[in-house]
Write a structure and sequence with these properties.
Layout: H1 2-21, E1 25-29, H2 33-45, E2 49-53, H3 56-65, E3 70-74, E4 76-77, E5 80-81, H4 82-88, E6 97-101, H5 106-114, E7 119-122, H6 127-145
Parallel strand pairs: 1-2, 1-3, 3-6, 6-7
Antiparallel strand pairs: 4-5
C-alpha cells in the first residue's frame, strides 16, 4: 500500500513538473545539428517547447519574433560568438542566456557571465547539470518579475 502512495506522489510530481515547463519556450542556438537535436530531445522530454536556430543571426531574429523564456547558446557559432550575441541582444527584457562551450577556458566563463549570461556549461553537458542550470535560470526569472521575460506585448 505504501508503494501506491509513493508512485502516486511521484506521478503527481511528474505531472506538475511537465505542467510547469509545458509553456516554457527555450531558444536553442547551436550550429552542430546532431548536438542540437540531442539537446532538443532531452529538453522536450522535460516538457519544454523548443525553438531552434543554426546561427546567432537566426537566433536573434527568433528572439525578436517569439516569446522566449530562456536561450541556450553555443559559444562558437559561425559568424558570431556568444559574446557578440550577448552584446547585440543586451536589454532588460532579454531572457536569461546559458552559454555552452567545448573549450574549458575560465576566461570564457568569466567573460560571458560578466556580460550577462546566466551560466556557462562545458560540452558535452550532463543532463542533471543542464537541468539544474535551466531550472535555476527560470526560477530566477520568475522570482525577479513574476512572469517570463521576453514575452512580447500584444499589439
Amino acid at each position: 500500500q505504501d508503494w501506491h502512495l509513493i508512485s502516486k506522489a511521484r506521478l503527481v510530481y511528474m505531472i506538475n513538473m511537465a505542467n510547469t515547463y509545458s509553456r516554457k519556450n527555450i531558444l536553442l542556438v547551436e550550429d552542430n545539428r546532431s548536438f542540437r537535436e540531442s539537446l532538443k530531445k532531452l529538453l522536450q522530454k522535460e516538457g519544454f517547447q523548443i525553438l531552434e536556430a543554426e546561427s546567432g543571426v537566426d537566433g536573434m531574429e527568433l528572439l525578436k519574433k517569439e516569446r522566449i523564456d530562456l536561450v541556450i547558446l553555443d559559444y562558437y557559432l559561425g559568424g558570431m560568438n556568444g559574446l557578440q550575441f550577448l552584446e547585440k541582444t543586451k536589454n532588460p527584457d532579454r531572457p536569461p542566456v546559458i552559454i555552452l562551450t567545448a573549450f574549458g577556458d575560465w576566461g570564457i566563463y568569466s567573460e560571458v557571465v560578466a556580460r550577462g549570461a546566466k551560466d556557462c556549461l562545458l560540452k558535452p553537458v550532463k543532463r542533471k547539470e543542464l537541468m539544474a542550470v535551466v531550472e535555476a535560470a527560470l526560477a530566477d526569472t520568475n522570482r525577479n518579475d513574476g512572469e517570463s521575460r521576453g514575452e512580447k506585448a500584444a499589439s
